[in-house]
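Example (one chain per record):
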Amino acid sequence: MIPTAVCLSRGRTGIFRRSAEEISRLTKLAWNMEALQVPHKPRYLLDFENPETVATCKTMADRAVGGFSTASLDHVPADAATNTPPHARFHGSISTKLPTNWKIHRTGYAAFRNQDRSWVFGKLLWDMDPYAYLALRVKSDGRRYTVNIQTDSIVDTDIHQHRLFTQHHRVPRPLASSSSPSQDPLSDDIPAGLADFPPPNSPILSHTTTPNPDPSGWETIIIRWQDFVRTNLGEAIEPQTSLLQSRVRSVGIGLTDRVEGPYDLRIHRVWATNGLTEEEMEEERRLCGNNALAESGGEHKLKEDTTFVETEGEGLERLKGIKGLKKK
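Predicted structure:
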């Protein structure tokens, strides 16, 4: 029996299926001349409405070096009674217990990301140049997660990161410490994208929290690609370079707060966007309720997260939509 392309595409890697899908996508772009204009439709990177997407991801934890943290990624079907969409559940437990290996001095992390993809022409990468934002629809338990982007760069271990600020993000504000500025979350040395909360007396760059988040928990977080911070081994490094949007290799979420105990993060979708269409807005309102993104004007009803800017003599002014993100 000679295996056909259909049979091979059903395998673990699905290289022929991915190749066919990518060729089809590129053909549509060329035929419709979509590359000549700003795309308005979303580009799904991880769509967990499809149960097969979970199988294309891999989890990581400090158990790989002898630690005791755990990480699992499971698919959860839709529940109409609670208005819950199909999604992935990233869960486990964080432990800072050190292994017997004396070379390991730090543990307490867990993460997941999509596996490396390939097609008939080699590595299959995402070209995010046509898009301004990365969007994630999540339901958070309030812990300090980070969004991790890996590109096909010269330094293979470099990761661009940004804190996943949600409306359920709860971090107590500590007192500033002059004796150890490197450990002070209020220090100017910490990039805004990795801070536990926005610095005081300055505009919030990406997201904010509200005192009364919707109890359903679902919300959409939008992060500008340019706001990601270049890191290596969990530390921001210099010189800072912009994320290579044309060669995105993987997208994922990690937890490195080193707070012992269980964690539970639900992820509906991860996608690239230039703003939400009317159809997406309907889904946004249906799933997120009071947490839904604010609507702003525009042909395609672009809308983003809430932003605060400092106005002369009036303190912080609340802005919504694309205008809120652009005005800093």
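Caption: Residues 1-13, 175-186, 201-209, 296-328 have pLDDT under 50 and may be disordered.
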